[in-house]
Amino acid sequence: MNGPQAPKVADEQIEYVTVNVHGQTLGLSIDRVHDVFVVSEMTTVPLASPEIVGLLNLRGRVVTAVSLRRRLGLPDLVEEGRRMAIGLEHRGESYGLLVDGVGEVLKLHAADLQPNPVHLNAGWASLSRGVHQLQDRLLIILDVDAVLAFETQKQAA
Fold it and tell me: Record's Gene3D superfamilies (predicted)?
């Protein structure tokens, strides 16, 4: 009789928090997400990168608000209303990633992650780890480190 087999890597499941931006569903690995919150007051930062839309106070912490729309090369949302953000940490700093809306948490098989489609916009592809084909839509998995690396890219230029 054989001993218990080690679980297959293909059976590993990863949980993603889904967000919506410009009608597209995007996924963020849940292990990178610290908070989901409604943005209230924001203080602008003079001379900051265009992606940085301001600073927030989140339970006594200063959080840099980053527009995911701007990171993806999209125009700002014109509609006023409740703005949602995903709280993330990157290199010891706190960020609030502004999104159009927050969806659900999905548990997907790691082996089902596919490479970016060849027709995916190059700017979007540079911020993506790959895609999952869902029944009714494509879920683009964001690379949080790449999304928040805009300052490094600017310094390199």
Answer: CheA-289, Domain 4, SH3 Domains
Q: What's the pLDDT tens digit per position in 5-56?
A: 544 555 799 999 999 999 999 999 999 999 999 998 899 999 999 999 999 9
Exposure string for 50-78, b = 16+ CB within 10 A, e = fewer: ebbbbbbebeeeebbbbbbbbbbebeeee
Closest to 28 (Cα-Cα) out of 136, 84, 104: 104
Strand order in the sheet with 33-39: 33-39, 83-90, 93-99, 61-67, 52-58
Domains of the chain: which residue ranges?
14-156
CATH H-level superfamily of 14-156: CheA-289, Domain 4 (2.40.50.180)
Question: Which pLDDT score is estimated for 151?
Answer: 61
**What SS3 state is found at 91?**
coil
Res. 139: pLDDT tops 60: yes
